[in-house]
Amino acid sequence: MQSRDFDVVVMGAGIVGSMIARALSRYAIRVALVDRANDVGTGASCANSAILHSGHDPSPGSLKAEMNRRGNELWHDLVHELEVGHRWTGAMIIALGDEQLPGLKKLLARGTENQIPGLEIISRAEVLKREPLLTPDVSGALWTPTAGVIDPFGGTVAAAENAVTNGVSLFLNAEIHDALVSDGTLIAVQTTAGEFRARWFINALGVHADDFMHLAGDRPDFAITARRGEYFIFDPNRVQVQNVLFPMPTDKGKGILVSTTAHGNTFVGPNAEEVADKEDTTATRDGMAEILEGGRRLIPSLESRDIIAGFSGVRATGNANRDFVIEISATVGGLLNVAGIESPGYVSAPAIAERVEGLLRNAGLEMVAKNEWNPRRPARPAFKELNHEQRSDLIRRNPNYGRIVCRCENVTEGEIVDAIHSPVPARDYDAIKRRCWLGTGRCQGSFDYPRVMEILSRELDIPMTAVTKKGPGSEFLARTTKG
Questions:
Q1: DSSP structure class, residue 183
Q2: Is the pLDDT score of 252 beyond 70?
Q3: Backbone angles phi, psi at 435, to 5 degrees
């Protein structure tokens, strides 16, 4: 088995792991980012509500509250440094009926204690002025102006690309199957891509973070419950809201919300169902009925015929008072756990990375800043967003941008080829979809699949039978029928 040596190995290339790798790329240390999937950001980071929460909701004094508030602050700069699609929409927590109005005051008090700026309770008339589609049962709302929405795929890819261009080594299809502990210290992990040795291992493995802890002999008391949440996406030409609309929260979470997205769609979800299988992202008939019913409590006009896609994701709910766990192991040397990162995990990711950086420094890891570190990651051209003059200029320079592959979203061959040859290469259909947004319109890829397969085959120099939807085991074609 091939062995590779690093100073730090970050395990898990979701938004948290990718942000940690980016933060560590500032320093003259050898950093590896490893993930079992064929691309970065394929777990909870690509199946979530994509909201940059303001931080009004977490329990005051919790690590979750601190990371949420700081993360929101950091994202206001990061979306520009990394050129990630986003919209600072603000959010409203909607009270229905007079009986829910006192709850708004409690949320306002909690948000004020969490030091969230700009919070205010707004009247029924003002709420309906901002969102006319809301139910007439609305009685008021808590307005949180610092909240927004982000392209969740783009954010993770951008963080990983910036880390890689600053010297981080990325290893995909590297599923961890063993942890080597010697004299109480974790010295190596064995994966399907070989063995990785390091001074420090960062456990950012999402729903499997507890599994790795136990594999390494750490925290037998800590457990993560997989909580599945399902979503609907609506046709933007049929349903449009302008804000993030939350119902009053429950003990299970923030509830079934209705929200705009960075790309202009409207979505409804998630529900919350505990599942035994941590990989269970099934979209169920009962779950989808629950979501639509919940969405209609806020927007009664929602119609099932306007739905263009449905999906589900699994959240990592830890048993440590449902707070984030970000700590150096007390029993296994060289292990730093980042676990139980459920909502608001996405917005908290840069703050978590900042905290991990500080923990490593305080633990004695020598971290000398690089002179040449570049915090910026330029986005690739998005043909759909360009004006006529910009499109003409781009096509003159690269004729591939003159060939539309995805008609619904106006994605060109040029964008697809650029994604395939990017710092974190897109090597399957779903990876291209996450970068270019193809296949997300009304036809859901039925027109572009064959053409994208041809482009992947050509650019990766692989046979059509080796082209996959989401990595090995998801090949589109079984065999050729001629020749």
A1: T
A2: no
A3: -90, -35
Contacts (Cβ under 8 Å, ≥6 apart) of 222:
210, 213, 318, 319, 320, 325, 339, 340
**Pairwise CA distance, residues 281 & 310, whole Å:** 11
The pLDDT of residue 358 is 98
- Give pLDDT, residue 483: 60
Task: Write phi, then psi, for 328 (nearest 5 degrees).
Answer: -75, 135
Residue 84 sits at the vertex; the CA angle it makes with 79 and 86, to the nearest 5 degrees, is 80
**Assigned CATH topology for domain 1-87+148-224+318-379:** FAD/NAD(P)-binding domain (3.50.50)
Determine if the peptide bond prior to 472 is cis (ω within 30°): no
Catalytic status, residue 214: no
Q: Strand 138-144 relative to strand 91-96: parallel, antiparallel, unpaired? A: antiparallel
Q: Which of 245, 282, 248, 244 has its CA nearest to residue 262?
A: 244
CB-based burial label for 454 (10 Å; 0-12, 13-18, 19+): middle
Model confidence at 157: pLDDT above 70: yes
Return the pLDDT at 240: 92
C-alpha to C-alpha distance for 221 and 210, rounded to whole angstroms? 9
Task: Provide the 10 A C-beta neighbour count for residue 308.
Answer: 18
Whether 374 contacts 161, CB under 8 Å: no
Q: Per CATH, is 383-466 categorized as 1.10.260.40? A: no
Question: Given 53, 56, 86, 208, which residue is catalytic?
Answer: 53
Cα–Cα distances in angstroms (integers) from residue 143 to residues 90, 118, 240, in the given order: 7, 8, 19
| 167: three-class secondary structure by DSSP | coil
CA 348 to chain centre: 11
Q: What is the pTM of this model?
A: 0.96
**How many CB atoms are located within 10 Å of the residue 394 CB?**
18
**Measured distance CA(212)–CA(203) in Å, rounded:** 7
177 CB burial (10 A radius; 0-12, 13-18, 19+): exposed
Mean pLDDT of the chain, nearest integer = 96
Strands 266-269 and 325-328: unpaired
| CA 226 vs CA 214, 319, 344: distances in Å | 17, 11, 16
Quickly state the pLDDT bin for 3 (edges 50, 70, 90).
confident
> What average pLDDT does the segment 418-435 reach?
97
Domain extent listing, the chain:
1-87+148-224+318-379, 88-147+226-314, 383-466
